[in-house]
Amino acid sequence: MAGPPASLSARDVGSFAYLSVKDRSPQILTKAIDTLHRHKSEFFEKHGEKGLEAEKKAISLLSKLRNELQTDKPIVPLVEKFVDTDIWNQYLEYQQSLLNESDGKPRWFLSPWLFVECYMYRRIHEAIIQSPPIDDFDIFKELKDQNFFESQESVIALCTHLQELRKTIEDLDENQLKNEFLKVLQISLWGNKCDLSLSGGEHISQKTNIMNSLEDLKPFILVNDMDRLWSLLSNCKKTREEESVTQVDIVLDNSGFELITDLVLADFLLSSKLATKIHFYGKTIPWFVSDTTIHDFNWIIKQLKHSNNKWVSQCGVDWEDHIKTGRWVYLDHIFWTLPHEFSAMSQVAPDLYAALQKAHLIFFKGDLNYRKLTGDRRWEFTIPFHEALSGFHPAPLCSIRTLKAEVQVGLQPGQGEQLTASEPNWLTTGKYGVFQFDGPL
Ligand code: F6P
Ligand code: MG
């Protein structure tokens, strides 16, 4: 039997992976260096001379990293002892074992893109933790917060919609409830357009009210399994016994506006009783510029709570309450910031796999999660999603993702080719989206 197809890699000159390693990644490193520069006086105020030395050290480590990348040096092991260092270094050895003798060592423009891109973010983190006392500095925090502030109009519209809906939700009939469910799903999908790594760290925020665009955006949903999600959850609701639990897990992606859309979805699931418990999974370290950490999660809820708009602040109050009462649980795990594809989870992080198995449904938000679900490989467009998951089936799951990398499976015959003919960049601009489900029919 033939194995899975090759990984996406910058060795394919002209591919999106190649352009990303060549152009976008160095830009992100340059922005990170600028950010450190700009915070110089803050570091001095906080830590005196030691803060300045630390800033210099972190900058020199990041400049070195950018140079290694741009000159296609071998990928070197991590040096600073941290919880995941050994796993990373073992993975590097594994990458070495995949190479032919003539390839030499794993390198930026040779190895799988998923690996080198994750490695870059892990090295950025290493540069920071090697530079105490600024070792808890989140280099991307400012950008994430800015994205949230710039999306205020949409945030107000979403919170208002949710609060109005909550007032009448008990009176809605099946059909009306389903329609509202489909709306919050689509909001969460298009919220994923706003990640900051695609733009090389430039701001992309949701400046206009997304709710007014849902109908116009429908043609851009390439795989639409929303009905299956409704069937699954409405069935859980109907058959659920008193006191028993319907658990939905959301593997989060970006902070800022996207996180708000995910929290709106999560609140709706509780208010509509389609679920009784939500587990959120975030990142333990700053990741792919805009991904959510526990600090972002808490920060955003606090921002909402203190808003001048009564609906927005009501959301903040309600969400804090969900957390206090344990209906919402935020969890993290180092696996999410490792380079492994998800098919390796049961081996590498069996505890996490076992935890996910308890969910009735798992949502995987965003592009990077899709790449990890499918192994970031050159699959044919028509290969079934179930097959591309390569054995990763902890529970029924659904990817909610706008397309920002050259991997897409589960399309109709001819669909991908047609898109390529009319829009050569359809895979990478974030214009298209999918709700792709895997689970019992
Ligand atoms: O390709 C653009 C990119 O930076 C990819 O590296 C990554 O897959 C993606 O954006 C991150 O997007 P998301 O935040 O949706 O996971
Ligand atoms: Mg992201």
Report on this model:
There is one protein chain. The chain has a 7-stranded mixed beta sheet, sandwiched between helices. It has 441 residues and is of the alpha/beta class. Mean pLDDT is 95; it is low at 196-203. It starts with 15 loop residues before the first helix and ends with a strand. It has helices at 16-38, 40-47, 49-70, 85-97, 113-129, 141-150, 152-168, 174-191, 214-217, 226-239, 257-271, 294-305, 310-324, 345-348, 350-356, 367-374, 385-388, 415-422, and strands spanning 221-224, 247-251, 277-282, 328-332, 361-365, 397-402, 433-438. The chain has 18 helices and 7 strands. 44% of the residues are buried. Helix 1 (16-38) packs antiparallel against helix 3, helix 2 runs antiparallel to helix 3 and helix 3 runs antiparallel to helix 5. Strand 2 (247-251), helix 11 (257-271) and strand 3 form a beta-alpha-beta unit. Helices cover 50% and strands 8% of the residues. It binds 6-O-phosphono-beta-D-fructofuranose and magnesium ion. 6-O-phosphono-beta-D-fructofuranose binds at residues 20, 117, 192, 195, 197-198, 253-254, 288, 366-368, 371, 404-405. 6-O-phosphono-beta-D-fructofuranose (F6P) is lined by residues 20, 117, 192, 195, 197-198, 253-254, 288, 366-368, 371, 404-405.
